[in-house]
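Obj: model holo form, ligand = adenosine-5'-diphosphate.
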Amino acid sequence: MSVPEPIRNPEIKYTQLFINNEFVNSGSGKTFPTINPATGEKISDVQEGDKADIEKAVAAAKEAFKLGSTWRRMDASKRGKLLRSLARLIERDAVYLGSLETLDNGKPYKQAFGEMFFSSSVIDYYAGWADKIQGKTIPIDGDFFCYTRHEPVGICGAIIPWNYPVPMFVWKIAPALAAGNVVVIKPAEQTPLTALYVGALIKEAGFPPGVVNIVPGYGPTAGAAISNNMDINKVAFTGSTEIGQLVMQAAAGTNLKRTTLELGGKSPNIIFADADLDMAVAASHEAVMTNMGQCCIAGSRTFVQEDIYDKFVERSIQKAQQRKVGDPYDQSTQHGPQVDEEQFNKILELIESGKKEGASLKTGGGRQGDKGYFIQPTVFADVQDNMRIAKEEVIFINIYYCFMVNCYNVVNAQAPFGGYKMSGLGRELGEYGMQQYIEVKNVVIKIPQKNS
Ligand code: ADP
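Output (holo structure tokens):
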């Protein structure tokens, strides 16, 4: 796809909470700054939501979901139409949204632009589901008529990270809305701007007030208020394992809200000696470097069969050195800054630990330039399993996954995504992702006499 030129200074249109289809200030009036990671400078102040604002958003969602409401009475096919309208609006504004994402997150504009189309594909996929969510009739014993109804779960809370702000946003809202739910979502504090703009598009698409509510704010306040809320029926979380555990504890300790979690890991790539070396090096490089390594499924450990180890390392060094780091608005840039100072410091500290623990630093290892949060593409060799760089999440979330063979980073709307063990609970995307937003009600009706 040819990528139009970015808008280098995108206007910041929305910095308030989005509740009931209106942009409003937080109850406390507090704000927090959002920072351009390419410069370290403030972009703007954003209204900071906390518990009271989450409660206000939940009240709006509850009203939108009550029996007889516009949303509850809407034809399923119309829900699909609204979702498709939203997808088209995201595509219409992809240059602006991509430019805004680059400003707020630091990712290369070309990638950010592409993410808007990935996001619209996810919305289109779930739009198709809206009028295809159906129950079954079940031939139970006795004189009964038995059927299932697939109903929306109700008020869905969502807490999302900063690495793919718009895709993460739509992964949560699209299946929820297709199934007829209402949503209260908290974007990550590092990247609130694109989510708020999508809020305006949700209104423009024609969703009734209160169906989607967006509350920017911090995790321990606004985030925890979602996982502890007694009226929220489901929470979907993407982020670190530590916080995922807190979310699940809160869900269990309050109203047993259904919980889905996409958490941390340390995904390995395994390269055998008979692999096409060029392809294997290129795929492993992209697996770990894409999105500055801030990728849910980053291949942050590479295991290489001994026979080709030296050659593989040598080629990986070349690749890392050729990677173009710099101005994320420049379309030839492959690598922007890390998302914030915290991640930047965390990664530099981990690189130091790798050196101290005896791994060989082959290239990179330091800051790039003197402003913003840029880190040189880094390759370590001779890494042992017990070293911190082999165990700790270099970035923050990497998910142990199904498996990908002879490829990497292949994520599509149609196929499920999620982790095993402490890397997650439940699946997103595809039909499996849809099921997380549906309650199955079994209905049994006594009848005088059944016939086969
Ligand atoms: P990271 O360390 O990469 O920021 P986190 O797991 O801390 O990953 O954050 C992912 C999301 O979880 C963000 O939206 C963040 O605000 C939110 N969050 C952080 N702490 C909590 C918490 N105690 N309860 C609920 N959400 C939280």
